[in-house]
Amino acid sequence: MGQYVAPIRDMQFVLHELLNVTDELKAMPDFAEIDADIINQVLEEGAKFTQDVLFPLNHSGDREGCHYDAATKTVTTPKGFKEAYKQYVEGGWAALACDEQYGGQGLPIALNNSFYEMLNSSNQAWSMYPGLSHGAYECLKEHGTDEQKSVYLPKLASGEWTGTMCLTEAHCGTDLGLLRSKAVPQADGSWSITGSKIFISAGEHDMSENIVHLVLARVPDAPEGSKGISLFLVPKFLPNADGSLGERNPIFCGAIEEKMGIHGNATCQMNLDGAKGWIIGQPNKGLQAMFVFMNAARLGVGMQSLGLTEVAYQNALTYAKDRIQMRSLSGPKAPDKPADPIIVHPDVRRMLLTAKAFAEGGRAFSSYMALQIDRELHHPDEEVRKEAADEVALLTPIIKAFLTDNGWIATSEALQVYGGHGYISEWGMEQYVRDSRINMIYEGTNTVQSLDLLGRKILMDNGAKLRKFGEKIKAFVEENGLDENMSEFITPLGDLGDKVTKLTMEIGMKAFQNPEEVGAAAVPYLRVVGHLVFSYFFAQMAKIALAKEDSGDNFYKAKLATTRFYFARLYPETAMLIRQARSGSANLMALDADLF
Fold first, then answer.
1. Is 204 a catalytic residue?
2. Mind listing the pLDDT tens digit for each residue in 502-550?
3. Residue among 138, 310, 413, 443 flagged as catalytic
4. Euclidean distance between the first and final Cα of the chain, in Å?
């Protein structure tokens, strides 16, 4: 079923040439000994695992799906999933970016992030089982008690136990302030938790011996809305004092959802009937604690779509070189064959280059974001940590929404390359389209991400975080503005930076008069800023490629061609988006609901 080859060369280019990651890591004592050889070795071994073990299970897992046993309330994953997870744990992959004090390998998020791209390219549904565990690990590490950390973090780091986030309920959707699950204090310091949760990825399965659920619920007399939410640690099996597994906790899967995609992952309805749990952090402060988990998940979802973009591109490219249809408009390119390979046709190239550019731009952006997280968590300079944290806060909604929007576009374009065969399941392309669609919805819909970016991350601090990031762009533009070879990249980058500044001020002024202006402008606004970020990284990559264009390595020629395509064909979307964002709320809100 198709193929997947991890794009190690481009990953190495981004980490070593664009980001100079080893120099950056040397400034962080926890990572000072990590060199390029270690990074390359991990990438190469990760490629073997994902290509040889996970990718062959992707199509079969989609066709088989998960099996729910109503009598035992248990879930069996598709054939091969459990065995692959055993290899994953034995290979130490779960521990890659976890702290050594909890049994982890202590490697940076920037490296783990590249591995997760490979996981998602090879098998997104499988990758969701261990994928949420790292978020649970980070949340407990940040907000858990010493006892909680000592019991749960080593098990999560090793992969022996997996984690979930139990947030929403049937009547809530994104509005978690409406949740009804209740937690009642017990004499032994624990809490008895009752309620129902929906859409819980990997909420029940047979791959790990225990599942650690992080559950949002209300304590007695909690304030209404989001200010009255607490966070609880609720294990599937209660650990004994010696670390072994004890009695079964009454948190059970009531059903698994029948879904459009990601069939190999169990999306569960979870019922808690007096389940035993322990509070994480302070009462009524659960949402703040859960944001550690949610932000990690949002980066993870962006990586899911990046992974799908890459694998869809690879397979479409192979097909386009092999499939013969019609002749080139400029004359036969394969005169020895009855028709030319479809890659000679301009629009097929447009579709392929769209996916290629979105993959390479997303890889640069997400790797930079992961490095900023490393700086936020590990840099010895408090000011550097704070600046990194501000930038991570600003970029998180962009990486979630922009990369998943692009993933939907790219997988659809890749399917289109196949023509009618793309619609047939045996080729595997329609699965990538189906799987990619959920990424625009869960962990906060892309509209919610857009509102978060514009309303909370930008307007609430009068654009301070955006200005700081803009200063980096401005410095790069000024540094390279006189280089004629760079003008085709620098001119549009500088122009878009100015337009974003003006657009932000305009929307902010309108919002003072009418808050609906934020909601009306948010979605196109996020895509505009997403293109600003991509333009910045593509311009940097172009500078490197120009310097090495004549080195004899065709990689740099390809990088320049992709960059030029991006600025010529994808960047111009910003003109339309800016007009949409400026058009105001009246054209959306004027029509009475009864007249729709």
1. no
2. 999 999 999 999 999 999 999 999 999 999 999 999 999 999 999 999 9
3. 443
4. 45
